[in-house]
Each structure stands twice: as structure tokens, then as C-alpha cells.
Amino acid sequence: MPIEPISTESNQKELAHLNNVQVMGILNVTPDSFSDGGRFSTFDAALKQVELMIEDGVDIVDIGGESTRPGAIEVSEKDEIARVIPLLKIIKSRFDIPVSIDTSKAGVMSEAILHGADMINDVRALQNEGCLDVVAQSHISVCLMHMQGMPRTMQASPHYKDIIDDILSFFQHRIESCETKGIKRECLIVDPGFGFGKTLQHNYQMLADFAQFKKLNLPLLAGISRKSMLGDLLNRDVKQRLSGSLTAAIVAVQQGASIVRVHDVAESVDALKVLKAVAQYKS
Ligand code: 7PM
Question: CA–CA distance from 237 to each of 27, 245, 249 (Å)?
């Protein structure tokens, strides 16, 4: 039995993939915590959370204005800018960490780009007015996420002819629109959007067949952390979904995900280390 890591062609490829995997940490900035007028304490809490995530080995921090979340009430562009941009500025001034801005609004995107954002994470895949143009004017990375329907109603009756084929063809169209506008292919990341207009069955089909999205030849992002597809399967509330979240993240990475969007950074980094160690010893 070998005691040294083995080097073969197939495990070199797998190792190269695993060494490339990035952990995206979700930064909670809920409107609730802003409505108490406690702007400073919210800021403080957010900055502490960023500091912790960095200690835990995060690769990129995702700042989400609540507006993109399923079931969420629409927020105005002005309010979203006021919520997200000051936080982006302070994070970029205090820490040396890539920041992603979770938004679907062109005005928020342009402000974010102006203030040093490293990635735009758009659950609407740049389909809103002006978004393609704003992103085309920079060289920023952008995550195109698939969603069927709109956040408030998308879980009512999701339907697909073939979930994987339908999402692949959505991405082909969006990638084409991006390239036509002058967004470089090297800037694109795709994400099938777990929980966004998908039944429990759809979500597990997507996870089982996640490797199919490699056909697009773009980095893949998976966001499954603490989602209903875990809660509904396990019958656990949101705080008790860590084991499920880690299992799902690892399954996604094993099938080609390059970025995992997670709440629990330290645990996810550990899980990935175990995966890498195993890959080193594979013959
Ligand atoms: C309530 C329900 C609150 C769902 C928040 C959510 C993704 C994302 C979100 C994702 C990308 C969450 C979601 N999910 N962006 N933003 N991919 N790219 O669980 O899966 O954080 S919001």
C-alpha cells in the first residue's frame, strides 16, 4: 500500500479541479437589521462576519441585498444601493478579499463596479434593462443564474420538458446575448439556481446530473447551502441543515462545481480539504 500520494493522469485532472474550487461565503445583510436605524451596528456585525469568514478560509464574499431572494418584496434601486455600496466600500478598504454583489439592477451593478466589486452575481442572468451594457463596459466576472418565473411566484408550479436540457438551452441563449454585447466568455460563470423555480425532485435531478453543465465549458457555481431542498428532505429547520449542506456541496464539487456558495465557511473548507486528500491518494 502506497504511503506517498500517487500521481496519475486522471487524478492530476481531478486535483487541478479541486485546487481550483473556491468557497463563496454568504454575507447576511437583511433589510430588517437596517430598519431599526441601527446602521452602525449592522455594519459592525457585517464586518465581523467578513473577518470571521476570512479566518475560516473564504475565497470570495457574496453581499446580497434581499431583493433577489425567493418570495422577497422588491426593493428600489436607491434603497439597494444605500444598503450594499457603503458595505462594499468599507470591506474593500479594510480587507484584501474578493467581493461579489448579488443584484439584478443595472444601477446597483454600475455602482458596485465603480467601487471595486470583483463579481456580479445575478439571479436574473443580466436579463433586466441595461444590465448587459453595464457589465460589458467592465471586465468584471459575472455569475449567470437560472431561474424559472419570478421570486414571488416561482415555486407555485415549476415545469420543465427536461430540466437539464432546458437549463442548458437557457444558458446557451444568455451566453450568446452576453457575447453579442461584448462581455468576454472568460468573465462568465453559470449556476443552475437550486430552489429558483424548481420542485424538490427537480433540485435533486439537477444535483445528480450536475456534471452535464460542464458541457458549457464555463466555471460552475452551486448554491445549495441551507436551502429547502435539504429542509424538506430532512425535515429540519434552517439552522439544522449543515450536514445536508456539506454533503450537497461536496457532491456538486465532485461533479465539476468550481464555486460553492455557502453559509458555513469553516466547515465547507474542511470538507473540501478531505476531498482533496482523497484525490491525492487515488490511483
Ligand atoms: C431565502 C431563500 C433567502 C433563498 C435566500 C435564498 C443563490 C444566489 C441566492 C444561488 C446564486 C439563498 C437564497 N441563492 N445566487 N442567491 N446562486 N448565484 O439561499 O443558488 O441564499 S438567495
Answer: 20, 12, 18
Please choose from 102, 226, 242, 258 the residue to mutate so as to test ligand 1's pocket, defined by most ligand atoms within 8 A of CB. Answer: 102
Atom in ligand 1 nearest the alpha carbon of residue 226: 19
Q: Which residues contact 237 (CB under 8 A, 6 or more apart)?
A: 231
Catalytically active residues are 227, 261
Q: How far is the CA of 185 from the centre of ligand 1 (A)?
A: 24
Of 209, 265, 267, 260, nearest to 17 (Cα)? 260
Low-confidence ranges of the chain (pLDDT < 70): 1-3, 30-40, 65-72
The helix (H) or strand (E) run that includes residue 262 is strand 257-262
- For 100-119, the pLDDT digits (tens) are 999 999 999 999 999 999 99
User: pTM value?
Assistant: 0.94
Cβ-count burial of 44 within 10 angstroms (0-12 exposed, 13-18 middle, 19+ buried)? exposed
- Spell out the domains of the chain, with CATH numbers in brackets: 9-280 (3.20.20.20)
**How does pLDDT run across 48-96, given as a tens digit for each residue?**
999 999 999 999 999 986 666 666 677 899 999 999 999 999 999 999 9
pLDDT on residue 36: 45
Contacts of residue 61, defined as CB under 8 A and 6 or more positions apart, other chains included, come to 24, 25, 27, 50, 53, 91, 97, 98, 99, 100
Letter string b/e over residues 145-170, b meaning 16 or more CB atoms within 10 A of that residue's CB: bbbbeebeebbeebebeebbeebbeb
